[in-house]
């Protein structure tokens, strides 16, 4: 007797209305927007600044490499530069290994 009653109650329950699919993807879209503004965009900005800095390297610039070696640019090539780190001591580096360009006269002061 309880079986037909439970079937009747189950059939009487209204079906859930299908929601808008946009609302189900809204948290995912919001998460992507947050990642874009907090991680992707600043990284792209730093890459662009580094690319411009490396492209503007010229003879006589004082630079610091990623390894912490400071020196003066002696020669600029297509993808390599020669840096003089001491009198008559020159090393050849990839342009991308330059982490920053120092103001003129910084190496003489230290």
Automatic annotation (TrEMBL):
Any Pfam family hit: YajC
Keyword S-adenosyl-L-methionine among record annotations: no
Cited InterPro entries: Preprotein_translocase_YajC
Highest taxon of source: Bacteria
Keywords per UniProt: Cell membrane, Membrane, Protein transport, Translocation, Transmembrane, Transmembrane helix, Transport
Membrane topology according to the record: Single-pass membrane protein
Family stated for the protein in its record: Belongs to the YajC family.
Protein name: Sec translocon accessory complex subunit YajC
């Amino acid at each position: 007797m309880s079986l037909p009653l439970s079937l009747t109650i189950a059939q009487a329950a209204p079906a859930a209305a299908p929601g808008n699919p946009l609302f189900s993807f809204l948290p995912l879209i919001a998460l992507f927007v947050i990642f874009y503004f907090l991680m992707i965009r600043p990284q792209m900005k730093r890459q662009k600044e580094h690319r411009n800095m490396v492209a503007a390297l010229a003879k006589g610039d004082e630079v610091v490499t990623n390894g912490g070696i400071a020196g003066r640019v002696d020669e600029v090539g297509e993808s390599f530069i020669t840096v003089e780190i001491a009198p008559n001591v020159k090393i050849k580096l990839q342009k991308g290994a330059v982490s920053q360009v120092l103001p003129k006269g910084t190496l003489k002061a230290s």
